[in-house]
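Anyone? Bumping this.
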Amino acid sequence: MTLEIIFQAIITGLMMGLIYALIAAGLSLIFGLMDIVNFAHGEHLMLSMFSSFWLWSLFGLDPIFSIPITILLMAICGILTHYFLIRFILKAKMLIQICATFGLSIFIRSIAQLLWTPDFRNVDKPLLEGRIEIANLFIGQPQLIASIVCLLAFIMLYLFVTKTETGLALQATAQDRQAAEILGIPSNKMFAIGWAIGLGCVGVAGGMMSNYFFIFTDVGINFALFAFVAVALGGFGSIIGCLYAGIIIGLVESLGGLLIDPSFKLLYVFAIYLLVVIYRPQGLFGRY
Amino acid sequence: MINKLQIARSEPLWNTNNRVIFLIFSLTVVLFVLPVFGINSFYLHLMIMIFMHAVMAQSWNVIAGFSGQISLGHGAFFGIGAYTSSFFFVQFGISPWLSIFLGMFFSGLVAVLIGIPMLRLSGHYFAIATLLIGISFQVVFQRWELVGAASGLWVPLTPEDSWISLQFHSSKVPYYYIFLIFFIISFFFVWLLSRSKIGFKLRAVRDDPQAALSLCINVSNYKIIAYVISAMIMAPMGSLFAQYILIIDPDRMFNLEISIIVLLITVLGGIGNIWGPLIGAAILIPISEYSRIYLGGTGGAVDLIIYGLILMLICIFRPEGLISFVPKNILERKKQR
């Protein structure tokens, strides 16, 4: 094992980590806003990948050009999720909230399986292909572009939440729903916006990943698990924490796979979750 | 004037209505004589599945309904039970009757080991942690050569029906009685638990942990007790199911679907209520089996679509479950004032 392989693993982990970070940011935004963990997050990711795939296969749109459409579709999907499901369970017990989003995840996944069969698909000959070589390190072009786009989207999300008026209104609602309503911020509208943005993030990640990842109905489960871990690691509700947590997870996954045993990749990440949650329950950057 | 103490004394030993008790007894008798009339083996299978899932859901009900911790990885204990009994039978020829208890012991042990660090967590953290643990078990068993890795264990078949090795090839009736007896024992045990001191303390922990702590109830200890009891109810079902299908593999035994269906049955029937799991299983399992018969050939997971839809609808419209349609004065005895 040479140094090059380790550097290669670090770069791979970094690129995956940025994608995890964006997926987790969407989850974290929704959680911070209304204290609901979206257990259907992986299925929403799967939907965004399929939307990217079908836009390519039916209309010949390359995944990088169809990203805006995917984001729009996912935002609509988020608003629909809020309108038809989440609206009713805002005041329910935590158990009911978990069960409802869990039910949504089963529902979406099995509908997808019925409609599109569990076959593996991939986008054939996308615009982004091949790899580039820098100092004996091979970097896949689609992976690189995907991670850069995810980083840009992450920065935009962060600026949106901290700098714009709507973003501040979101934060106000997250901190105290009733006080925000007194100040004239309609919390229901804010929740819908939160869902739209949260799933929009997933749309970016899913659209970029459809360039190089296999697309199948169970694809979301692992990503969703990593997103849960990233959210807990970064601190529930903290968006900037997701970035660091996502990168940590990506690195642990690729380095652990390289140095110990690749078949237990999942377990290393889970072990990190357990350690962090037991010794620092508020996460690395948690507010609470 | 009646003071509080007198009210507490007049609380009956069981608060179940006499009519309900009569109903339960007659139902039990009917269930015992049912196979005598020679019902179709599909219906026997259906009843066996209902008993099994009712007990599994009851086990989840103990941890989620009584102590308020949501475990999303309860399939792990099912798998541990199944693997223990099959492994000891395949390797050492120990009768499954004994290794059922070994399975209970092991899953109780695992529950303690998981429970001590994890049950200090609450809410979403615990739910996600158990979800991860459930999947970790599947990952580990898929790669563990000693227990057959991904291809699983094949329980060696005995040439004839045998009570010692718990295999019946000619008829499902013995399985029916075994599952029925375990079902009755488990429900009776949980009913005792719910009326015992531990049961009341667990509900205190669920409803208000801080108030419970101020009454000298050791919150985390009671959560661990509930988790262990729940694991030990789950494990025998795994062992019996392994003896029922006689081939076990990690994909089936540690499937996330087990954890999901257990949750779904309990929420559908009514969480925190001892009859909830029975009602949920009696409604859901026939739906699942029939949809598999009539729509199984389509390749789609139609029963899962129905599950997801039911779960969402229940959460929106009836968070207390179907049991809440039955008025409380029918279920419970009037207090003698």
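Late reply, but here is one note on the structure posted above: The interface with chain A takes residues 64, 68, 70, 72, 117-118, 120-121, 123-125, 127-129, 131-133, 135-136, 139-140, 143, 260, 263-264, 267, 271, 298-302, 304-305, 307-312, 314-316, 319 of chain B (CB under 8 Å).
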